[in-house]
Design brief:
Cathepsin B, Chain A; two-stranded antiparallel sheet; 37% helix
Length: 251
């Protein structure tokens, strides 16, 4: 068990490192992005495979299309923003945003409750590793009753397709991102791993609507106004997924 003293020591080390590398943010990097750490059990993988088959069936039928035209589809979900209560709590905070939308203000779990969630013993969150996104998907399935799915290795087009698929079914999605500051308006630092809620899309103008739990300007001197409901070019969001190691989407 980590002691309060150890936490303070870790904070000192992170603060010192930030002075040595001012262009790269250590705070907020809280996503498991290592294929050796996924360890998805057989029952969960079978469920994800089934959901993927349903998704692919929709694609092959032509019901999931992402065109760029004036009458292209668009939809946005009215999520409620939740500011992460720790600088590395983007996963639990994203879960609170999605859960709040699906179960309402009185029934949704808090960030700490989601951080403590386990699926058959597999943790959603650990201090050492951050958030496991496949457990996020199983947690949403179990607690909200919605048919959430999880995939890795997503391409740009697949990010678009899964965004539309989830949002059209009234399910906010979650993206595992690597933030490269030069590509992201509002961000002033790079982030090796970050999780955000995707709440909508507008293919008429090529944008994706996010609900970002991370207030960069509150956790880092010189940080940007990243928190809350933001709209980005869809290529920026998809690029954040595809540049990450595992290219993860919960939808």
């Amino acid at each position: 068990m980590k002691t309060k003293g150890c936490a303070l020591l870790a904070l000192f080390i992170v603060s010192a490192a930030s002075l040595l590398w001012p262009s790269s943010a250590l705070a907020g990097d809280a996503m498991v992005d290592d294929s050796t750490l996924l360890n998805i059990p057989a029952d969960a993988q079978a469920y994800f495979d089934n959901r993927e088959a349903q998704f692919q069936k929709g694609l092959s039928s032509g019901s999931e299309i992402v065109p760029m035209m004036i009458d292209a589809p668009y939809k946005s979900l009215a999520t409620t923003s939740h500011k992460q209560i720790r600088n590395d709590y983007c996963g639990p905070a994203t879960m609170a945003i999605i859960d709040h939308f699906l179960r309402g203000s009185t029934k949704h779990w808090s960030q700490n409750e989601w951080a403590a969630y386990r699926y058959n013993g597999s943790p959603l969150w650990t201090d050492a590793d951050g958030a496991f996104m496949w457990v996020m998907a199983m947690g949403l399935k179990e607690k909200t009753g919605r048919a959430y799915a999880y995939t890795t290795g997503n391409t740009t087009t697949q990010v678009y397709d899964r965004t539309q698929y989830g949002v059209d079914r009234g399910r906010p999605v979650a993206y595992g991102l690597k933030i490269i500051q030069a590509n992201w308006p509002n961000y002033n630092f790079d982030h090796a791993g970050h999780i955000v809620c995707g709440r909508g899309y507008d293919w008429r103008v090529g944008t994706i609507h996010l609900d970002d739990p991370y207030p960069e300007n509150e956790y880092q001197a010189g940080g940007g106004g990243t928190y809350g409901q933001k709209t980005y070019a869809r290529g920026v969001v998809a690029g954040g997924v595809t540049v990450s190691t595992n290219k993860q989407v919960v939808y």
